[in-house]
């Protein structure tokens, strides 16, 4: 269990000035709150995969079924939600923009568009990871393009992200926190996409030989290895 004394020492080591320490304490408190939210979210997801109903989950959380669903089930929305785009690296922001570009003939922005954005950002760690693990050169891109709806749709003025896309981006945050990173890089988005198993992108990636376990192992080896690259690259 995290001890208050340890947190006080952590903040105290950051600066000598009392007001700067206060600012650091507020920042750390926010990080701990986010970690707590994702810790609960992780076990909610685990319970759902194990067959628990929303009524049972709500009872465990001490809330109603409706309140549990509202908190943990992503909804289609033109907004990305948390975290703000400030947490995304420049490459990750380009991935989001590229996903929107690939969805220009679609009613919604899905995980398949997000995957194409990751592939387009070829210098990013996500694209390099896919290239390393996929069964054939360019096989993931070809398979993804084959899964796109070939019939142009009327794009709404406020084009929403699908629930699977929103969940993948939420899981990207969780993967970043698991790795001890407070930013969202292309590698985190890839891992989030892979964890959202019901999304089109995860299905494509699995079929081309890119699994979450293999991707996570490769990414962590690159980030932490002897020829380490900056995380978020």
TrEMBL record:
Superkingdom as given in the UniProt entry: Bacteria
Keywords in alphabetical order: Repeat
Pfam families linked to this entry: Clp_N (PF02861)
Record flagged with keyword Transmembrane: no
Domain (Clp R) ranges: 85-225
Protein name: Clp R domain-containing protein
Annotated source species: Lentzea pudingi
């Amino acid at each position: 269990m995290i001890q208050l004394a340890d947190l006080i020492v952590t903040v105290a080591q950051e600066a000598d000035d009392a007001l700067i320490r206060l600012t650091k304490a507020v920042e750390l408190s926010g990080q701990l709150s986010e970690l707590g939210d994702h810790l609960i979210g992780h076990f909610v997801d685990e319970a759902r995969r194990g067959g628990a109903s929303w009524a049972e989950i709500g009872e465990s959380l001490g809330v109603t079924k409706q309140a549990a669903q509202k908190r943990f089930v992503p909804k289609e929305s033109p907004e990305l939600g948390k975290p703000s785009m400030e947490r995304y690296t420049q490459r990750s922001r380009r991935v989001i923009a590229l996903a929107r570009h690939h969805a220009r003939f679609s009613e919604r922005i899905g995980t398949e568009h997000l995957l194409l954005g990751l592939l387009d950002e070829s210098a990013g760690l996500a694209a390099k990871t896919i290239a390393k693990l996929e069964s054939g050169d360019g096989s993931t891109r070809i398979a993804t393009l084959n899964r796109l709806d070939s019939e142009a749709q009327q794009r709404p003025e406020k084009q929403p992200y699908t629930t699977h896309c929103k969940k993948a981006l939420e899981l990207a945050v969780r993967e970043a926190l698991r790795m001890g990173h407070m930013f969202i890089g292309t590698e985190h988005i890839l891992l989030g996409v892979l964890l959202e198993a019901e999304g089109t992108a995860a299905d494509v990636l699995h079929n081309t030989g890119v699994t979450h376990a293999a991707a996570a192992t490769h990414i962590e080896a690159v980030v932490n290895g002897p020829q380490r690259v900056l995380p978020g690259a």
